[in-house]
Amino acid sequence: MKGAFRWTFLLVLAAFFVIPMLAMARFAFQSVPVVLLTPETLLTGWSIQPILTIFSTPQALSAARVSVLLALFTISLNLVLLIPLAIVTEVKAPRMRPLLTALTLLPWVVPPIALVVGVAATFRTGAPWFLASVYSLVPFYALWAMPFTYRALDAGLQATGAKTLYEAARSMGASLPVIIFRVLLPNMTASIIAAAALTSAMVLGEFAFASLLLKETLPTFMVNFQRSDARAGLALALFVLVVTAISIGLVVRVLRKRGLNVQTTGI
Amino acid sequence: MVAVDMERVGKAFGPSVALTDFTVHIASGELVCLLGPSGCGKTTALRILAGFETADSGTVHVAGESMSGVAVENRNFGMVFQDYSLFPNMTTRQNIDFGLRAHRVAPKERTDTIDRMLHITALEDQAEKYPHQMSGGQKQRVALARAIATRPRVLLLDEPLSALDAKVRESLREEIRHLQREIGVTTVFVTHDQQEALAIADRVGVMSKGRLEQIAAPKELYEQPTNAFVATFIGSINRVPGYAAAPSEWQVLDRQVRGTRGSVPGESAELGVRPEDLVLSIDDGPGQQGAEGTIGDISFLGAITRVTVQLSQGPRMIVDVMSAGTTHLSRHQRVRVCLSPEADHLVVMSDPQPVASGQVT
Amino acid sequence: MIRVGADTRLSLMVAIPFFIFIGLFLIYPTVAIMTSALTPGDTFSLNGLQRALSGTYRQGFINSIALASTSALLGGILGMTLAVVLRSLERPRWLHSTLDSWSAVASQLGGVPLAFAFIAAIGTQGILTKLFSQLGVNINDFGISPTGFWGLVVVYLYFQIPLMFLVSLPAINGLRATWREAAAIMGASASRYWFRVGIPLLTPAALGGMLLLFVNSFAAYATAYVLNPGGALVPLQIRFLLQGNVISGEEDLGYAIVTWVIGLLLLSLFFLTFLQRRTLRWAQS
Q1: Does B52 touch chain C (CB under 8 A)?
Q2: Which residue of B has its CA nearest to C178?
Q3: Which of A178, B276, B357, C216 is least enclosed by beta carbons within 10 angstroms?
Q4: pLDDT higher at B29 or B291
Q5: Chain A contacts of C130, Cβ < 8 Å?
Q6: Residue C28: CB atoms within 10 Å
Q7: Who among A20, A249, A267 is closest to C98 (CB)?
Q8: Closest CB from B77, B83, B87 relative to C185
Q9: Are the beta carbons of A207 and C220 closer than 8 angstroms?
Q10: pLDDT tens, residue by residue, C183-242
């Protein structure tokens, strides 16, 4: 009885998630408009033309490039800011942990538009060049990714007993850089990768900040593009989804094989 | 009051065999310990008895009824886990109450039972505390109270003291024993700590690699181990070389004794001798009885002093001597090692090998 | 002279860049906005805050809260159930890792591709719409369209469920098997265990997760923007006021709405932290 419920539940949920994807694929790759769809026309008009259109649109490729670079910079910024903080909290000041966990959740409390307006007002007077660059998105993205990045790092440190490792290494006479680079960081690989995966997914799908700052990233491009060529736009969206999902899946699988269990974030 | 009979139980998890041909008959009211190193199958045996695992082969009977097909909930057993397994969202009182409610006991009787349980485990002042507010020893007492509150037919304990400090462990094991004797519930206690097992059990079953090597009362296990594994696992033992002097006699050190295996003249083997079954005497010169050796270390252990002796032609031996009789012993002294008069039946520890002619100890 | 130990100095050195970053890009802009909201025209007044809760803006708040809470509640229940179901299934090995990577992607990538997908499925030209119309049912009439309330809830569930799943996993994994076994050997049926132990233990995590979902979806912008740009939802209204019009005075109204939003979400955050501490305490027993 229990087993049947479980599988039914999974199947219904799977259907819920897969059907819109299928609908999107159908719309993108079949040139038959919905009104004309009949069982006879169901198998006609399929082609991968929309994908080819995308690859031959230079704007699409540059938007994609921008998004990927943004993802890399965001991950780097967050790791540089948060790894030392996470290490220090775990090893020296565990009582700061609840404060930091709450603090890193703050970015989600402020609506993107407010943040954009606030920051823009600050920089407009002081450093107007800052907002002109597309990379001005990086601080916003870093903030938005902070909640789960910090949690993933923190969970990883706790799970591997970083405090004990640090003290053991210290007692063996290791210097701080050695401890960080040869003891602590290698043990954080799994959580770093988990955080990076989530951040990448976030950046590749992030629309609010990008559109409010009038930048051309992959998602903003998608929205504009689909106004002119709906099918290609949807094909691009589907493509991005599938590629991201597969990449992350591969990364997680490779990590699992190496025995590094990717820590999921808690609350 | 029930008897437990496990007959030829076998269990494998995929390619690894956890339990083979496991047979044990536990009398009503008896406390049996399953003792062995990790991976020996003792926990698997316990879990099969509890019903959490199903045996691949063999049968399990409790009070004469077969347990196959009987769900865990319906067996009316009690169990204490290594990690206490107390429900964190409930107070001590509520934890103990849980099983009583599941058995649909009337409210008045529930309250009475809980009060009684709190009293006999000395937990009255912990009644309204939550698990995270209590120490390990207290939590385990709650677990015990919870397990026996429902008057189980069989009480199962899975390494209940392993997570506790040494002092707490000792006092709690006495409590468990005392409680068990009073209630008279048939009990199976799994542990890897031989001191624990020998201290409280009526009988101890020594296990290794999925097999039950020997099950006997602690004294018998110690004095008459049936094979090398049991002899080495329980207490300390010396492996002394001996050779077959006559069809059932082994020549060991200074005299001939019987062994757990018959001897064929011309064979040599190692025999097990307990440290307290050896006698030391100062070496006066050739012609004296016993094996020659030199004293290595002398460790004062209280009533007993442990002396290590390196034989000139043989292994290093551990000899336990009453501390009162050691004033004349010192390091590097030459001594002779003999068997004590009481030792008359030794465990043959290794496979007998034919001796090449000319070799005589 | 204050003696500061080497450790403390190091900790401070590490914390400073972080706090500068947060201060510059988060705290200062937020405080600036909230101050502007409270001092429209350079005088202290609560007028702005009051206006922000009247008329269409009031409706916007009601809509947003309704949308966020409904999707948080449904997404929370479904997401946690998924985690529980997954925990009990060991067999298909690939199931666990597939769901893990899916939840990572689906919870964050949502927004734009999602909106497209749902238009393709249940929009006026959607394939499901067409399918159902063959059966004589116009699902748009039931509000199952990308612009109706329930349509939006359904779309939001797409990222709410994976997020809840992701966030519930540690709590579900924290439910020790020995608790279940202890309950069973004391004679409890599965339902008794869940009712008295499992569910109470999961409740703080569940509530916390739902709060997180609420916070996450309240400010959700992309999906709303693509599906219903003129809709009465708070994020869209803020955008209209702060970027659409450049009339001053209207800006202050926008800041006022933002202030309310921040207040609401801060409150949720506060409760979230409280629930977290509960879960932590139980995990230590």
Answers
A1: yes
A2: B85
A3: B357
A4: B29
A5: 34-35, 37
A6: 15
A7: A249
A8: B77
A9: no
A10: 999 999 999 999 999 998 888 888 888 998 998 888 788 888 888 777 788 888 887 777
* Cross-sheet strand order for the sheet of B304-311: B278-282, B334-339, B291-300, B304-311, B316-322
C-alpha–C-alpha distance, residues B156 and B170, integer Å: 19
**Chains contacting A (3 or more CB pairs within 8 Å):** C
Q: Look up the CATH number of the domain holding residue A89.
A: 1.10.3720.10
Q: Domain range spanning residue A216? A: 61-257
Looking at the structure of chain A, the number of domains it has is: 1
**For the complex shown, is ipTM > 0.95?**
no
The 10s digit of each residue's pLDDT in B299-327 is: 998 899 999 999 988 889 999 999 887 77
Residue type, A123: F
In chain B, the domains with their CATH numbers are: 4-232 (3.40.50.300), 236-354 (2.40.50.140)
Of A87, A111, A119, the CB nearest to C219: A111
* HEC string for chain B: CCCEEEEEEEEEECCEEEEEEEEEEECCCCEEEEECCCCCCHHHHHHHHHCCCCCCEEEEEECCEECCCCCHHHCCEEEECCCCCCCCCCCHHHHHHHHHHHCCCCHHHHHHHHHHHHHHCCCHHHCCCCHHHCCHHHHHHHHHHHHHHCCCCEEEEECCCCCCCHHHHHHHHHHHHHHHHHHCCEEEEEECCHHHHHHHCCEEEEEECCEEEEEECHHHHHHCCCCHHHHHHCCCCEEEEEEEEECCEEEECCEEEEECCCCCCCEEEEEEECHHHEEEEECCCCCCCCEEEEEEEEEECCCEEEEEEEECCCCEEEEEEEHHHCCCCCCCCEEEEEECCCCCEEEECCCCEECCCCCCC
Q: Which residues contact A206 (CB under 8 A, 6 or more apart)?
A: A141, A144, A217, A219, C111, C222
Topology classification of domain C56-283: MetI-like fold (1.10.3720)
- Mutation site for A-interface testing, chosen from C105, C258, C274 by largest number of A Cβ within 10 Å: C105
